[in-house]
From TrEMBL:
It is found in: Membrane. The gene is LOC115889818. Residues 1-18 form the signal peptide. It comes from Sitophilus oryzae. Pfam families: Guanylate_cyc (PF00211). This is adenylate cyclase.
Amino acid sequence: IGRGKYTLSGLLLAVTAALVFVARHTEQVARVLFLWRSQVEEQRDCAKDLKRRNEALVYNILPPHVAAHFMGNRNRNHDELYSQSYEEVGVLFASMPNFSDFYSEETVNNQGLECLRFLNEVISDFDALLELPQYQDIIKIKTIGSTYMAASGLNPTRQIKPDDSYYKFDGHT
């Protein structure tokens, strides 16, 4: 009986040690899985933010219907080009001549901040004009440095009516 008592105690001690080992291993695995899930969630949020930024950039650079074509069509070939034919298109390049000469990073200019603030005001004024109903068919393409680029006649859904005086050219405008 004495020997069985020690055997049973040894067996109980071995089972306890095994259970402690399994519990610690399970806890370690759970912690690693928690960290991985946290990293995956963080990367998913980062990817969503990057996708949102990329879409905003595409919609900022391209006319809305072209951006929608590229963003919405997931089954197209990567070498597929987009082309559309329009009968009447106008392109505007509004530039501030010699802006680079005007721009200076002096203390009086707050290290160039005032020049950039002025440029931002001009660009914002152009953007505000394009929000007016009479300019609804003019699309901002992009700004590069001190040059503002816009285009009209690129709206595929707009139907020009014969009596639409906004689109008539009288030779004086």
